[in-house]
Structure formats: C-alpha cells, structure tokens
Amino acid sequence: MVTKIEAAVRFIRGLYTDNPSVGIVLGSGLGSFTAEMTIEKEIPYGDIPHFPVSTVEGHSGKLIFGVLGGKKVIAMAGRFHFYEGYSAEEVVFPIRVMKFLGIETLLLSNAAGGMNTNFEVGDLMVINDHISLFTVNPLIGENSDALGPRFPDMSEPYSKQLIAAAKSIAKANHLDLKEGVYCGVTGPTFETRAEYKFLHIIGSDAVGMSTVQEVIAAVHMGMTVFAISVITDLGIREEENKITHAEVLEAAGKAEPKLTLLFKELIAQM
C-alpha cells in the first residue's frame, strides 16, 4: 500500500509542486462546488497510478488543486464507493495519498437520507459522530505503522473545534445548520422502510453510502476531520417512499451554495 501511495504522490508532484493543507471530498451532485475555487491544476483520476476511477453519475472523477478561502486546497471531484466493486482499501486510497501530499485537515460532504423527523430535504447536517457497523473497515488486514497505529482511537472522529466553528459561521450567515449522527451502509440499494426505522432506532439521523471508510482512514493517519451531509431525501415518512438517484442529485445541487459558503468560510478561519 505504501509503495502504491508513494508512486501516486510522485506522479502528482511531477505536475503540481505547491503544498496544499486542506483536502475536500465532494459527494453526489456537489461537483460544481469547485467553481468557487481558483483552479491551478486538474488531474483526471485515470492518469494517476493506482487511483480508482469514478463510475457513478454526479462524480466527475478528478483531483483539483487550487485556492479556496485563501488556502491551498485539493478537492476530489468524485469519490469511490464500496458498492462500485472497489475494496475498502481502494475506497480510501485517495485519502491516504492526500495525507502523503501534506494534507492535515479533511473536509467531506455527502448526500444522505434523513431519518430525523425534524429534517427536511435540502437541510445541511454537520456530522458529529457515525455508526460504521454496516461497512467494511478499511483497516482490516496487516497494519502499516507508516500509515497509523493498529488500533486508532475513534472517540472524536469529527473535530469538535471545527464543528463549533461551522456553527458560528452558519449563525452569522443565517443558515439553518442541523447536527447529528451519520450511518454508513454499503448500498447501492436505498433502504427499505424497516431498515430506515431500525437505523433511526439505533441512533442515526442520516444514512448514506460513503464517508465512514474515508473518515476511519483519515483518523488512522492523524488527520483532523469535518464532515457534512446534504439531506437529499427523507427515509422516514408516511407517504410514497420511492427515491431515485436523479432526485438525490437535484436536491444536492440546490443545497450546494449553502455548503460552498460554509466550507469556504471554514477554510478561511484555519
């Protein structure tokens, strides 16, 4: 794994030599977020040694280097999912590459189904914790001390300091910012009514098919993490419960300006 990471880093360093400090992972339908960046370099995933390639609509598939909020950043326009057939190790490979490129703080976004009855489509939910019982842990297998400890502590996977800063930014900009627990599942099916109910009972406010494995890898490597869900559909409701990916992308697109403002201001304060 380390050899593969180093090969990817060497290739990227041959094309971009600056030292970004913040990494951003964009979820489904949130790719136009990068329009707010001053873009300095774009590298398609397919060009980078050992990098997977996005196969899902709404994920463009490239690393974007530039400036946002006055800081040098790397943005992943498109992420990888376990349901695409990638291993957990492959899903988190880009996170490890970003760490080796010097990234210390990781901001993640995702599209999620809301299970908290106080949520509405289009809400932003700051993730303060997650449930990972339903995803394959990316640290399974032989541990490499070059990446992190065998048994990383997960008592604060999401930075309390960054959560507090995000709340202050939201208040100053009159944004209604929710907060809650994210549950990661494998997908690619949307949940049944019974599954939504069960996940809510065990403490989840939102559910999605990404993020958790990336956060585990980031914490393993000592990165500071902040993550936010765009509530693109509601899983717990009485009426017709059918959900389509097109509807998820549409809802994410509408919420994107709020997410962009929050991330931009958060980065500016770092």
Main pleated-sheet profile = 5 strands, mixed, barrel
- The helix/strand class is alpha/beta
Low-confidence stretches: none
At the fold tier of CATH, the topology name is Rossmann fold
Total helix count? 7
Order of strands, widest sheet: 5-8-7-6-9
Mean pLDDT: 91
CATH 2nd-level architecture: 3-Layer(aba) Sandwich
CATH C-level class: Alpha Beta
Task: Outline the structure in words.
By secondary structure, the protein is an alpha/beta fold. The chain has one domain (2-268): Rossmann fold. 29% of the residues lie in helices and 24% in strands. The chain contains seven helices and nine strands. It has helices spanning 2-13, 88-91, 93-100, 160-172, 193-201, 212-220, 245-268; strands at residues 22-26, 38-44, 62-68, 71-77, 105-114, 124-131, 177-184, 206-208, 224-234. A five-stranded mixed barrel has the order 5-8-7-6-9, surrounded by four helices. Helix 5 (193-201) links the parallel strand 7 and strand 8 (206-208). The relative contact order is 0.21.
Provide tags for this entry.
single chain, 270 residues, alpha/beta, Rossmann fold, globular
Quick structural overview:
The chain has 270 residues and is of the alpha/beta class.
Question: What secondary-structure arrangement, pairings included, does this model have?
Answer:
Layout: H1 2-13, E1 22-26, E2 38-44, E3 62-68, E4 71-77, H2 88-91, H3 93-100, E5 105-114, E6 124-131, H4 160-172, E7 177-184, H5 193-201, E8 206-208, H6 212-220, E9 224-234, H7 245-268
Helix pairs in contact: 1-3, 4-7
